[in-house]
Amino acid sequence: MNILWGSLMLLIGLFLFVSSIRKSDFIIYKLLVARSKILWGENVHTFFIMVSIVIMGLSSLFFLNIWGN
After folding, report:
1. Transmembrane ranges (predicted)?
2. What share of the chain has pLDDT > 90, as a percent?
């Protein structure tokens, strides 16, 4: 089961990473940016780059069964 959740987290992190670098117009990403722009202002894309790196790192720990037994 950890393989499934680790893979899912990795895909979400990868989606956020690619979308934040490209400053995508995809509707889900635009909704996330609109909510986060209230707090982060113009640094919202940098915030999502950092969040996506953290999510991908945690997903690798989850995938390898180090975290989240």
Report:
1. 47-67
2. 75
